[in-house]
Design goal:
2 domains; alpha+beta; 11 helices; four-stranded mixed beta sheet
Length: about 400
């Protein structure tokens, strides 16, 4: 479904979400059929390929209700607990206005200015510079930011990032991305389960069939089995492996349904909310190549403002490059690109107040052409201190 504007983009996201959910069931049935082929090859190692295919088809029909129940159950669990799963991976924790007044007020002001329901606010302790939104309905929507982002960005830049995530929620991108995470999780779980089973099995060179890697060799009488049957079992297993790889590949292609234009639209939505394209540009430049979340799965990284993990030859990349996004903001929003930016050095931060001998905090001595912070003011032999007034030295 092509999208030519904001409303068609939202409708397209809803259509793709339903299509991806239908694809989830199809992928599970493919995996069940592949598992049935392997099981038939294990139990009957001297049959033809046609026998294995027919038997696996009957097994799929028998397992069809159970596979459907598993798929529905997984969707229900993901619907209610996907945020808990994401928090378990990222370590995000909900915060209140008292805990994060700066961040909370910035998000609340954006929501009030456009009449957008206030999502939950979460912070994860990580030096990475990133943020993401999650949720499938208004009661579940949340925005998570890293502690590194709060330290590296100023208020205008943080506001721009929050506007970016609010636009994802408003445009319906979040639901589509969460559905993709669900599909990737299902296929990854079953794929790993089957491949772990393969690692514990080996084909006997005598042609007697499959056996556990720890079991002893078959008896010599079984070595006279029909070589055609042995070949049929091998072909059946090869077909099963190809189907599993195909299911995995399709789960990766699901990422292509996450149109890269969603990030460009979210950047534009942030500018529309904040009226400050330069803030979005400088935020992207600071986040660039600094958003890697250690331990986070690829599915979680696809939710983030920037995903530094690129696919093979950029084929499976879910985000446009920062350069492309900045170029669009400069061209269509009138912003100014400062180029790649280095984060501010902590050594350049203003001095902390010093404590005097009386136990009172003294303000730091300002740096300037007439004063040097290395020389205490008002001490003989040094530069003159601040002038004294009629009530004593100015504090």
């Amino acid at each position: 479904m092509a999208a030519y504007g904001l409303y068609t983009h939202i409708a397209s996201n809803k259509f793709r979400s339903m299509l991806l959910l239908a694809g989830l069931f199809l992928l599970i049935y493919v995996l069940v059929f592949a598992g049935a082929l392997v099981a038939e090859a294990l139990m009957h190692s001297d049959k033809s390929v046609d026998y294995y295919l027919m038997s696996a088809s009957r097994d799929l029909l028998a397992a069809f209700p159970y596979a459907t129940i598993v798929a529905v159950l997984w969707i229900v669990i993901a619907y209610f607990f996907h945020q808990n799963m994401i928090d378990a991976v990222t370590g995000g924790e909900s915060v209140t206005r008292q805990q994060q007044p700066r961040l909370y007020n910035l998000l609340e002001n954006l929501c009030i200015s456009r009449g957008i329901p206030m999502p939950k606010l979460k912070v994860m302790d990580s030096p990475a510079l990133n943020a993401f939104a999650a949720g499938l309905n208004r009661r579940q929507y949340s925005i998570t930011v890293t502690s590194g982002l709060l330290q590296a960005l100023n208020d205008r830049e943080i506001e721009a990032v929050l506007g970016h995530e609010l636009t994802h929620i408003r445009n319906g991108d979040v639901q589509l991305m969460v559905v993709a995470v669900i599909i990737a999780g299902v296929v990854g779980f079953f794929g790993e389960l089957f491949f772990r089973m393969f690692t514990n099995l080996s084909w006997n060179s005598s042609g007697s069939g499959w056996s556990s890697s720890s079991s002893s060799s078959s008896s010599s009488s079984s070595s006279d089995r029909d070589s055609k049957g042995a070949g049929g079992a091998i072909i059946a297993v090869i077909i099963a492996v190809v189907l599993m790889l195909l299911a995995w590949l399709l789960s990766q292609v699901v990422k292509l349904a996450l149109s890269r234009s969603r990030e460009l639209l979210a950047d534009a939505g942030s500018v529309e909310l904040t009226k400050n394209p330069d803030a979005m540009i400088t935020a992207l430049r600071k986040i660039e190549n600094r958003g890697e979340l250690p331990g986070a799965t690829s599915a979680v990284m696809e939710l983030c403002v920037d995903n530094p993990r690129e696919g093979f030859a950029d084929l499976f990349a879910t985000h446009p490059s920062v350069d492309a996004r900045v170029k669009a903001l400069v061209q269509f929003a009138g912003g100014h690109d400062p180029g790649p930016m280095a984060l501010p050095d902590t050594a350049d931060e203003p001095d902390e107040p010093e404590e005097s001998a009386t136990g009172q905090l003294q303000p730091p001595v300002p740096r300037g052409p007439w004063n040097d912070a290395s020389e205490p003011a008002g001490v003989p032999g040094t530069r003159p201190g601040p002038p004294e007034g009629p009530w004593g030295p100015h504090r």
